[in-house]
Automatic annotation (TrEMBL):
Organism expressing this protein natively: Lactuca virosa
PROSITE patterns listed in its UniProt record: SOLCAR
Transmembrane segments: 108-128, 223-246
Short name of any one Pfam family annotated for the protein: Mito_carr
Highest taxon of the lineage: Eukaryota
Gene Ontology cellular component annotations, sorted alphabetically: membrane
Keyword Repeat: yes
Keywords: Membrane, Repeat, Transmembrane, Transmembrane helix, Transport
Annotated SUPFAM superfamilies: Mitochondrial carrier
Ranges: Solcar repeats: 2-91, 109-208, 222-313
Swiss-Prot/TrEMBL GO biological process terms: nucleotide transport; transmembrane transport
Name of the protein this chain belongs to: Peroxisomal nicotinamide adenine dinucleotide carrier
Length: 328
């Protein structure tokens, strides 16, 4: 089994576990990002209160709306990302070693090279998986509504049929055709800088930690808790920088308001940015920021920790099998 495949499968496994743990926060955060009602700003509820409101008004299930396609998307995204990341990373390392032999560089992959590797992996991932995330966004932002168009507690036989994956797919297709599944792809491609910054920071922090250990002549390896903390710190830095693009992407992928003021309808990325600046101010680009930081940092930390443990476990099993197969 190749190192790229091991990393790809481990990344998918880590991503699924992180998604399961943090999904309710992600659902609330998506709703915060796509909320365009200025009246709600005056009576702004906190994350925990909003989660409680969703449970009271729509049931526990709505906190996990879109979980199935989200898990598929997470597995695909993390698997594709880590697979191509490892391939591009291996090529970058080979280039660095070749340059060292030629008398240029120290043989290690620099910060710029790490950024480029992460960016290329992210672009491949976005182009392949964007349709999944459009469907997930629709399911997360879908609310059970009464005939008066207000969200109310669901009682007995008045509960409408569930809004499933097929309903979301048909809604997107009816609204914009096949290209509707690539809504928000431009800001998402620009947002490739998020995992790029994240992995660049993570690898830089991890490299510095290992160098300090080697300088102190310590044979102690990097622990799961240290990987958890490094992953959390790296994700925090990346999220703060790229959050406005995430809000724009969510606005574009959510169901467009019909029959209302045009300020709530977006024709594209630039139109969304200009309308948000005009009608909501720059504050609109940071709606739900605190929720996203908690969700992203926790998810990234769990992802890195689980991935590293899975990679180490897989390599140990492969070495064990190889040792058994050797003739005595």
């Amino acid at each position: 089994m190749s190192d790229a495949l091991i990393n790809g499968l481990a990344g998918a496994g880590g991503g699924i576990i992180a998604q399961l743990i943090t999904y309710p926060l992600q659902t609330v955060n998506t709703r915060q990002q796509t909320d365009r009602d200025p009246k709600k700003e005056k009576k702004k509820a906190g994350t925990v209160e909003q989660m409680y409101q969703v449970v009271q008004q729509e049931g526990w299930g709505r906190l996990y709306g879109g979980l199935a396609p989200s898990l598929v998307g997470t597995a695909c995204s993390q698997g594709v990302y880590y697979y191509f990341y490892q391939i591009f990373r291996s090529k970058a390392e080979a280039t660095a070693l070749r340059r060292k032999k030629e008398g240029a560089g120290d043989g290690s992959v620099g910060m710029l090279s790490s950024l480029m590797v992460a960016a290329m992996s992210g672009c491949v991932n976005v182009l392949l998986t964007n349709p999944i995330w459009v469907v997930v966004t629709r399911m997360q932002t879908h609310t059970k509504k009464s005939p008066s168009n207000k969200v109310e507690p669901i009682v007995g036989g008045n509960e409408p049929p569930p809004f499933g994956t097929s309903n979301a797919v048909l809604e997107v297709f009816d609204e914009a055709g096949v290209w509707g599944f690539w809504k928000g792809v431009f800001p998402t491609l620009v947002m490739v800088s998020n995992p790029s910054i994240q992995f660049m920071l993570y690898e830089t922090l991890l490299k510095n930690l290992k160098q300090r250990r080697s300088l102190s002549n310590s044979n102690k390896g990097v622990t799961a808790l240290e990987v958890f903390l490094l992953g959390a710190l790296a994700k925090l830095g990346a999220t703060v920088v790229t959050y406005p693009l995430l809000v724009v992407k969510s606005r574009l992928q959510a169901k467009q308001a019909i029959g209302v003021d045009k300020k709530h309808q977006y024709k594209g990325t630039l139109d969304a940015i200009l309308k948000m600046i005009r009608y909501e101010g720059f504050h609109g680009f940071y709606k739900g920021m605190s929720t996203k930081i908690v969700q992203s940092v926790l998810a990234a930390a769990v992802l890195f920790m689980v991935k590293e443990e899975l990679v180490n476990g897989a390599r140990w099993l492969l070495l064990k099998e190889a040792a058994k197969s050797k003739p005595s």
